[in-house]
Write a structure and sequence with these properties.
Blueprint lengths: L2 H5 L3 H23 L6 H8 L20 H16 L4 H13 L7 H13 L20 H7 L3 H12 L6 H18 L4 H14 L16 H14 L3 H9 L5 H16 L6 H4 L4 H16 L2 H4 L2
Length: 305
Amino acid sequence: MKLSMILNIDPSELKERARAAFVGMAVGDALGATVEFMTSSEIANKYGVFKEMIGGGWLRLKPGQVTDDTEMALCIARAVAKNQGWSREAVAREFAKWLKSKPVDCGDTCRKGIREFILHGTLEVPYNRWDGGNGAAMRMLPAALFSFPDSELIKKYAIEQARLTHNQSLSDASCICIGNLIHLILRGISKKRLREEVECFVARFPGFKFEPYRGLATGYVVDTMQTVFHWFFKGSGFEECLVGTVNQGGDADTTGAICGMLAGAYYGRASIPKRWLKKMDPQLICELEEYADKLIMASPGVRCR
């Protein structure tokens, strides 16, 4: 029996969820970038509750402008499309091209890993227990879409894309977890079931325990995931999930991007506030939706129909 028939999922519904995930990621990135590196108290003192797409921040962005979170995810999407399949080297080439374009921002660990590829052709950086940043987790969405619903493929793609820049066990675990959650959401799984999945993850990796929430939203991947878990499960809609997340400050563009991809896929495109979408670059939105379509329609869940 065909895999898509076993799952009984309408490809058009998958496309809509994939699009909402990609657009939600970019919206979360752009919203959170304004308050990146601020504390929750500083945000409260300046904005009350921060919930408008106004740009600025330490990067002095235009309203709706995205950062490396979205740009690196797009690199992976372009690599898959150009190569017509998964290739770690193709992804690395896109990362290199992007870095040479002098992006508005690039994390130190990502920059170091990409430069290793440019200089030496390195496709997997050495293990480093200190490389527990969130730079690999933030760009997981294309790998999740392209591997859907194959649990073994998502592990392979997650680790291969991650270790181009980050080779660390907690980073690996976070990437795989995000991929699994996206797969479940694409299948229409309830939040109760998603929470059970996360609780199983926390049982395997107790450091990710997120209740009671400690209120840390740094670039350390554990803090990032705790923040995303807390606000995704606490919120009752896309806006509520995302506003709660970015108001924690810290690495708010990345926590916003990850929460945005999950909440976008879960709640759908119509749940993303129009006032936020109006501030986004229409060309970027079209590109995100185009790649979402290409990735999900080439995934095992649709390809084998």
